[in-house]
Specification:
Layout (H helix, E strand, L loop, with lengths): L6 H7 L3 H23 L5 E2 L8 H11 L3 E2 L7 H9 L1
Parallel strand pairs: 1-2
Length: 87
């Protein structure tokens, strides 16, 4: 099991739950935004899935990618709607 980058620095600031959560979010954003940049980013990005309902994660992605992210009304069901349309 590898250590999640970012958590350690937040724990040093304060071992509060919100600081640990912030470290986890930062780690995920760093890793994911690096993959997105490697693949190439288009002018319009849509964020889907349940995590897209977390405003902190959306803001962190927007900052990391330096773009405005679009969100569907109900991002957590976007994949299911697409599967239903294809069936």
């Amino acid at each position: 099991m590898h250590r999640i980058r970012g958590i350690g620095s937040y724990q040093l600031k304060s071992p509060k739950k919100e600081n640990i959560a912030a470290g986890i979010i930062e780690s995920i954003i760093l890793r994911t935004s690096a993959m997105v940049k490697k693949l190439g980013i288009k002018p319009e990005v849509v964020f889907v899935g349940g995590v897209a309902k977390n405003p902190g994660v959306v803001k962190a992605f927007e900052k990391a990618l330096d773009i405005k992210i679009k969100l569907p009304e109900e991002p957590q069901i976007t994949g299911a709607l697409g599967a239903a349309l294809l069936s």
